[in-house]
Design goal:
Strand content: 5-15%
Number of domains: 1
Shape: elongated
Radius of gyration: 16 Å
Helix content: 40-55%
Length: about 110
């Protein structure tokens, strides 16, 4: 199930659907629209965004601890974006599944077979 950030009436919401009348946008544009209180109706596939951003983070060849610290600390873009849009991430625990899946699929130096 994909999650979408929908922006309408100067409010952002995280939904499992995209608004029919919304213009496809980017996460960055929705953050600007939210901060500037634009009247636009925008949507973005947040699931696709999360996956594409995770693929930019190279955790192969490191330790699992390094991966966890990297993805869930200062680079935790999922939490940062939700905070920027006043969306409570704790209400959407399955958003974290993408991050955990990415970590579980990595090849770590501390888990290589001898």
């Amino acid at each position: 199930m994909n999650h979408y950030i929908n922006f309408k009436n100067k409010k952002a919401a995280l939904d499992t659907f995209k608004l029919d009348d919304a213009k496809n946008s980017t996460v960055e544009d929705i953050i600007v629209a939210y901060e500037e209180e634009y009247d636009d109706c925008l949507t973005v596939d947040f699931t696709k965004y999360i996956v594409s951003e995770l693929l930019k983070i190279d955790i192969d060849g490191h330790t699992r601890e390094y991966a966890m610290n990297t993805i869930f600390s200062e680079l935790d873009f999922v939490e940062r974006i939700c905070r920027d849009l006043d969306i409570e991430i704790c209400d959407y625990p399955d958003l974290r599944d993408y991050q955990h899946d990415y970590i579980n699929e990595a090849n770590f130096i501390d888990e290589k077979e001898d």
